[in-house]
Amino acid sequence: MKTLYDYTYDQLGELMLSIGEKKYRGQQLFEWLYRKRVTTFDDMSDISLKIKTWLHENVQLSPITLKTRQVAADGTVKYLFAMEDGALCETVLMHYSYGKSLCVSSQIGCNMGCTFCASGLLKKTRNLSSGEMVAQVLYVQQELDKEQERVSHVVVMGTGEPFDNYDNVLNFLYTINHDRGLAIGARHLTVSTCGLVDGIRKFAHEPIQVNLAISLHAPNDELRSKLMPINQAHPLDKLMEAMNYYMSKSNRRITYEYILLQGVNDSDAHARQLADLIRGQNAYVNLIPYNPVDEHGFRKVGVKEALRFYDQLHKAGVKCTLRQEHGADIDAACGQLRAKHERKR
């Protein structure tokens, strides 16, 4: 059964018109869902019995249930949710000085096949609907409501490739950004892609000013093709063309994500190649500590080596950050917790 979270603000208005109601009823429903965050239709006090009856018969509220929850020593929380069909997906809440950032999944499994990533341990079985993505945010927000806190940032950076589920991801972004709902600012929303060129070009024309991040992880084609099979279809010259196109149309700064893998992509030569690759772009590099995945065998770099790589980029004029490590004492890598549970099943 479809969830009410699947409908954007405008779609809820059209839905009400389609069942013979006034369009403004959709606005009322939207505010009940995202401002008052009700958990049953019956809590919607100014919605008529006729509409509630239709809702009970035709749609549901949250399509997810909590399967398990892990809390790290640093406060990072990893949630494993079960969908209506039994499929499992992960969501991670991270605490920063600037707020609470939620990493959501966009697919059940992933077909991109990155050799270092736990998300690809289990292949994609289907896309998540926009409502299933929204439900991840709402579940966590309802938890935070008890502490009078809020989800301030959302990254579509969990399991799955967002541009392989383009329309649902866009509906999700519009829903959580809407000022009559959760009102999470567009500049606090980030979509991360491994480099689907057509999706990047299409995203350049979207009116919502959401941040774009590219999972790069290697500064040359030979290495990137070994780590990320997508590079064989969309090599770096094509990816850079798409990124320049995106920047020319959106006038937005972009982020390149670069997971540091010991002895693989962390040399001084790699740092110089990376600086050469993105020189002249309105971009910065987010250096990410690796969360080891037993099945892959890669190792994380030490703090000293990570800082050396950071310094090399900085000296080359590249704006960069070294991301704070989160959840090292739990199943921190994207897809790790889900893979563990699927093996047990």
Assign the CATH class of the largest domain: Alpha Beta
Q: List low-pLDDT spans.
A: none
Domain count: 2
Structural class: alpha/beta
The total count of strands amounts to 12
Q: What is the name of the CATH architecture of the largest domain?
A: Alpha-Beta Barrel
Q: If helices are DSSP runs of H or I spanning 4 or more residues, what is the number of helices?
A: 12
* Integer average pLDDT: 93
Strand order of the largest sheet: 1-2-3-4-7-8-9-10-11-12
Radius of gyration: 21 Å
The description of the largest β-sheet is: 10 strands, mixed
Shape: elongated
Please give a quick description of this structure.
It is built from 12 helices and 12 strands.
What does this structure look like?
The chain has 345 residues and is α/β, with parallel strands linked by helices. The protein is 36% helix and 19% strand. The chain has two domains: 55 residues, Orthogonal Bundle (DNA polymerase, domain 1); 281 residues, Aldolase class I (TIM Barrel). It has twelve helices and twelve strands. A ten-stranded mixed sheet has the order 1-2-3-4-7-8-9-10-11-12, with helices on both faces. A two-stranded antiparallel ribbon has the order 5-6.
